[in-house]
Amino acid sequence: MASKPEPRFKIAAENRRARYEFEIGEKMEAGLALTGTEVKSLRTGKATIAESYVGVTRSGEVELINANIPEYLQANRFNHEPKRARKLLLKAREIVKLAQGVEREGMTIVPLKLYFNERGRAKLEIALGRGKKLHDKRETEKNRDWNREKARVLRDRG
User: Fold this and answer.
1) Domain of 104?
2) Could you tell me which residue, 88 or 10, shows the higher pLDDT?
């Protein structure tokens, strides 16, 4: 079997539950305004974005809310607050697109993945998502199980 190409970025945190809870629409990459201790703590890989969401403020800025980046142990008194709101760096046209999706279409801005790109910059992959109903979640799970079973049968046949 061919080996997978190694990703060119390091994933610091991933929101795997988002794909189960939401229908994922358009994805975007956003930069994060972080302090030095937050970056060092992210590199250890102990951050969680599972319960976080992205909000657009009245002043037209976009923030990552409720993401947990634990304190960096070697930082002493210069540490950061673990659950503070962090500003996302996006172009004005992208902010408008996100705000319109939330206001008009009733969608939610969902963080999917927090990672370091090739240049070592912290990036957040966000997407516009629409919440799934319980029957949609069951359908997704049924399709996933069927695809798994189908792959197993084809593999066993040779």
Assistant:
1) 10-132
2) 88
